[in-house]
Amino acid sequence: MKKRIVLAGGCFWGVEAYYQRLKGIIKTEVGYANGNIENPTYEQVCSGEATHAEVVSVVYDNSLISLEKVLEHFFRMIDPYSLNKQGNDVGIQYRSGVYYENDEDHEVVKSFIANKQKDTNKKIVVEVLKLQNYYLAENYHQDYLIKNPTGYCHIDLSLIRPEELK
User: Fold this and answer.
1) Which domains does the chain have, with CATH numbers?
2) Catalytic residue among 5, 11, 30, 126
3) Is there a catalytic annotation at residue 11?
């Protein structure tokens, strides 16, 4: 069964590249979510005029990879205690977040984060909200690290175990 979750984990290039390598992921695309204006540009997001997060829309086959497993990977790659900052990227567009589309997924996300929070005294600051809006990023951002293999990436792609690769 095809499902979708939208994730913000800093610069969207590396987050997309990570998920593109995983078994069970059908499609990824980068975009802007949960912001204040319609169809923002990259420049508007970077300047702060637009309040969107840089996100990756992850479409996955729920029979091959569960939402819990998608979230496990997400928490493996991000710093869930860092507010508006991932790697060298700082600003509200680089906040970490999970944006769900239905109540069932919301319950899974809440439960997953509550269990993670039990393991630490540090406060998890990952935003969990219903997806309010989503706009596709410009074409040059799509599959960026495939098009630009030496491009900037704050995500450690070696965190994917060999058996998790496509």
Assistant:
1) 2-164 (3.30.1060.10)
2) 11
3) yes
